[in-house]
Amino acid sequence: MEDDSDQEVFEDAEDVIKGCDIDLERSLHESSVAVSLFFNNKFDEAKQILEPWVGKSMYHTFGDSVFKFLEAVMTFEKQAIEKASNALKCSLDISNRYRKKQHTIGKMVRRPKYDQFTPDEMHAELCYAEALLLKAMLAFIEDETLVNFIKAGMKIRVCFNSYKECSNILKSRDWSDVQHVVHFQSGVHVGIGAFNLMISLLPSRIIKLLEFIGFSGSKELGLSELMAGYKLDQGLRQVLSIMTLLTYNLFAIYVLSHQEGNLQLCEEILEEQLKRYPDGAWFLYFRGRLEFMNGNINEANAWYVKSWKSQSVWPQFHHLCFWELMWIHFATHDWNQAAFYADTLLKESKWSRTIYGYQKMSALLMLESIDSTQQEDIDTLVGYIPQWKQRIAGKSLPIEKFCVKKCERFKSQKGTLILPAIELLYVWNYFKVLGKKWELSQPVYKLILKHLSEFERGKFSGNLFEADNKALLLLLKGACLHQMKRPYQAEECLKSVLSMEKQIKDDLYIIPFSLVELALVYHNQGDTKKAVQVLENVKKNYTGYSLESRLHFRIHSALLDFNSNKKNVPK
Fold first, then answer.
1. Which helix (H) or strand (E) holds 409?
2. Signal peptide position in this chain (predicted)?
3. pTM (2 d.p.)
4. Where are the domains of the chain?
5. Which of 102, 267, 440, 455 has an alpha carbon 20 to 30 Å from 24's alpha carbon atom?
């Protein structure tokens, strides 16, 4: 549990416990049924199980708050966010009332006697940690001020301490007389696992700060805890370990690093879960992502469409599918369909109109022939994209700033951009997917060569940003060659980019990104020492460029991987 200064009293919760007519065993059973219904797309039936006991049973109350939380983050609607906030406040209140009361001074002097914790008190500690984590996450969209971000950070610290307390209970307590230990165990595994994994992904400079205020993270521990949670087939929270493992291996790794996810594990998990939930939107969606990461475009498209059409209760879930379908059509150069999905997101989703707008604009600019309606769309988007940019805690999102900057370039280059959709595929790290299949990488390579040939013929001469544009094409060519397993040509191409460093006026990100790409080429050629030197050079000597934080995630991941491999090499 936490210091008194961190204790948050939820006196204004909606409901007060006045005797509960439902015991823990029934709460756990009904919550398990609700989880099963939820992942079978029977959302209303799941809610009907939970709602009668909201404010009376901590598990029913927390389950209800989870549903409201998911709706809030999918819609970004103020009313949904307020409902989720109130529901989580209620969940925190009821969990806090059941938690074991301990004085801070006493706890500092002696270790708590965990065998004296009742089952209700143990599960209350776990539910409290879970609800507080969701409340902190909701705070980031509820009130986007710096003060609120600091408060959210404090909540996460309290939550982290609660999970550590639950871990101590699990390790120290005698469980011979306690039923349903598997439900508590599954919750501890997913909580400790997710925290460790999340922190381990962060760049080293952020990790040092977090360690100073009491956080720590180990990728190996995180994955082992999540695997332990996944193996607890009867655990109420097993599905959370599953969702975290799938998200890490199919999304986080591909966006934040150079590595591949454990696709074999994902295959195993999804085979099991689709037998259990054959029409479940979530697992159909993850199956689509698995096929996409394997480069199986047609199969991915089919699974995403199946996921999209599997339910209509939560239309906001469709947006996740539309986002993926848009990238599939970017990868296959079906620019009209890519623009269609980007436009649908622009009209229906509130996440980032700046990103959606620029994605639509990029797709349209890739068309060989642009009609008057499409040109009007492009001109309109160029004006609105900067206006849609969001500020969170006083800062703009880096990827939105990138999109706005490209719109400014479009205007300064008299209505042109160089392969904007291919550039987006690169900065979102989708070149790794292109490298899985020749039929995906070869068309991109030919497109880049075509534009480089036009450069040689002087088509873009006299442009103020001629060097920037050529450097971009050479970076894309080098990255493409790298994925096509042609390292020496990739190295030559990337070194050509570096030779242009002093000529680049605006796209300063191209040089550090090229250096990181070159480091990966060196590593794949077996020269890990040289790769590490290049990455350290980027960390120390380059700053103030677009998408810097995104690149630092990849540098951190690569250095961890390279240094780990060096330690494992036999002497």
1. helix 398-412
2. none
3. 0.91
4. 1-179, 180-256, 429-571
5. 102
